[in-house]
Design brief:
Length: about 80
């Protein structure tokens, strides 16, 4: 297996439009306009942060919760994370 390059990335970034312009399933289920059905994700292996255009954010501590079952976005203990 090759060595990891010195300047190898330390995080992954994702943008996703989860809108359904034809069936409008996501829009109707969440009460959103099509323009509000976007999200951005950043993960560094320890944390995953999900920012929605029109919904509350999600934050997962991947070491403590690898299944991503507990959103700690409002937990004061993670305010500096």
């Amino acid at each position: 297996m090759p060595d990891t390059p010195a300047r190898w990335r330390d995080a992954a970034h994702v943008e996703y439009d989860f809108g359904d312009p034809i069936g409008r399933a996501a829009e109707e289920a969440l009460g959103l306009a099509s323009d509000d059905c976007g999200l951005c994700v950043i993960t560094d292996g320890r944390f995953k942060y999900v920012h929605f255009q029109a919904l509350a954010p999600l934050l997962y501590d991947l070491e403590a919760d690898p299944q991503q079952l507990e959103n700690v976005a409002d937990d004061p203990a993670y305010a500096e994370a």
